[in-house]
Amino acid sequence: MPYTIEPIGLVQSPYKEKFAVPRQPRLAPNARARIQLLGAANSPEAVRGIEQFSHVWLLFLFDQNLAAGWKPTVRPPRLGGNERIGVFASRATFRPNGIGMSAVELKGVTQEGNQTWLELGSVDLVNNTPIIDIKPYIPYSDSLPNAQGGFAEKEPEVLRVIFSENAQLTLQRHPDYRNIQAVIEQVLGQDPRPAYKKNKPDNKEYAVHLFDWNVKFQVESDLSAPIDAINRNFIRVTSIQAF
């Protein structure tokens, strides 16, 4: 029997496009977000008591991918983008019903006139992602210290990020530039390029839309680093322009 799901909220996040969104929540801790509750869910009564919880589960729609459909196997970036595994053994965004879930920090509840907002910590959601449900995170039940993480057992490697002189000067004109710079470092440090390019410097300049900025960057190799260094590559932010 088919069901219809209506979003109960929309996310407001720094990520204006899919490219460079962290592949898991909390990888960019300075990138705060918020949820605008909609319709009947837009009520202080609907979230009464939620502030007792430090974290919540967000169920959401991969709305930008729904039209593309899905396949039984996928190529996870953590496996280099070449090895195929079953879609249900992954967190791929192309799924049978296009539903995702994230555990995120709840910073609080705010009320602006008739609008109720949930203030969040770091999320892995594109701006305007539809939220279809919100549930409290319960540590004794949801935290499983002995769980095994399979091919994603280890945290992803983070590259060093440096800024060109012009990019740094542009950032410093913004009153909140320290936080914005931290977000850029946390996002780009994960090397958002396609998985097959991981740990491979190239001469191509990439661009990502964060906040209201167009951030351009390249992946380079530090030729002065020791040959046996774990990773000689780094991210260079070449320019930052306001939209």
How would you briefly describe this protein structure?
The chain is mostly beta strands and 243 residues long. It is built from 3 helices and 12 strands; from the N terminus they run E-E-E-E-E-E-E-E-H-E-H-H-E-E-E. It folds into 2 domains: 9-150, YaeB-like (Elongation Factor Tu (Ef-tu), domain 3, Beta Barrel); 160-242, YaeB-like fold.
In helices, the fraction of residues equals: under 10%
H/E element string?
EEEEEEEEHEHHEEE
How many strands, which pairing sense, and closed or not: the largest β-sheet? Answer: 6 strands, antiparallel, barrel
Largest sheet, spatial ordering of strands: 1-2-7-6-3-8
Helix-and-strand structural type: mainly beta
Integer count of domains: 2
Residue windows where pLDDT falls under 50 for at least 5 positions: none
Could you give the count of β-strands? Answer: 12
Distance separating the two termini = 45 Å
> How many individual helices?
3
Share in β-strands? 25-35%
CATH superfamily of the largest domain: YaeB-like
**CATH fold annotation of the largest domain:** Elongation Factor Tu (Ef-tu), domain 3
Average pLDDT level: 90
What would CATH call the class of the largest domain? Mainly Beta
The rough form would be described as globular
Please state the second-level CATH architecture of the largest domain: Beta Barrel
Rg computed from alpha carbons, rounded to a whole number of angstroms: 19 Å
Notes on the protein architecture:
With 243 residues, this protein is mainly beta. The chain has 2 domains: 9-150, Elongation Factor Tu (Ef-tu), domain 3; 160-242, YaeB-like fold, CATH 3.30.2310. Helix content is 10%, strand content 31%. The strands form 3 sheets. A 6-stranded antiparallel beta barrel has the order 1-2-7-6-3-8. Strands 9-12-11-10 form a 4-stranded mixed sheet. The protein starts with 8 loop residues before the first strand and ends with a strand.
